[in-house]
Design goal:
Main location: nucleus
CATH topology of one domain: Arc Repressor Mutant, subunit A
Radius of gyration: 26 Å
Subcellular location: Nucleus
GO cellular component, one term: nucleus
Organism: Acanthoscelides obtectus
Helix content: 40-55%
Strand content: under 5%
Number of strands: 0
CATH class of one domain: Mainly Alpha
Structural class: mainly alpha
Distance between the termini: 67 Å
Largest sheet: none
GO molecular function: DNA binding
Shape: elongated
Number of helices: 5
């Protein structure tokens, strides 16, 4: 007779979105600690820590080749060359 799998963990996300928003706002405003907010609103501490640290999350994708200043300078240069009737983008994008 086969064993029937029974989930051992409890139901997930027993809190509402409003509770989560108010808990994260109290933590970000430093009115309550993460642990106290978790107990008050009934949300796991790790969930609140993860939501709190989402602001510092590194952006996805590789680093840019040029910095913002270099990219702006390159855009300015291309626009200036187009004013002189040197169509760089048309030459680059030709098939």
């Amino acid at each position: 007779m086969p064993n029937i799998y029974k989930r051992k963990s409890l139901e997930r996300a027993k809190w509402t979105e409003e509770q989560l928003k108010s808990a994260t706002s109290t933590v970000k405003d430093e009115r309550l600690s993460v642990r106290q907010a978790g107990k008050t609103y009934g949300i796991p501490r790790k969930t609140l820590e993860r939501r709190k640290n989402e602001d510092r999350k590194k952006k996805l994708g590789p680093d840019t080749t040029f910095g913002a200043a270099h990219e702006n300078r390159l855009v300015w240069h291309i626009k200036e060359m187009q004013k002189v009737d040197l169509h760089l983008l048309e030459m680059i994008c030709e098939p």
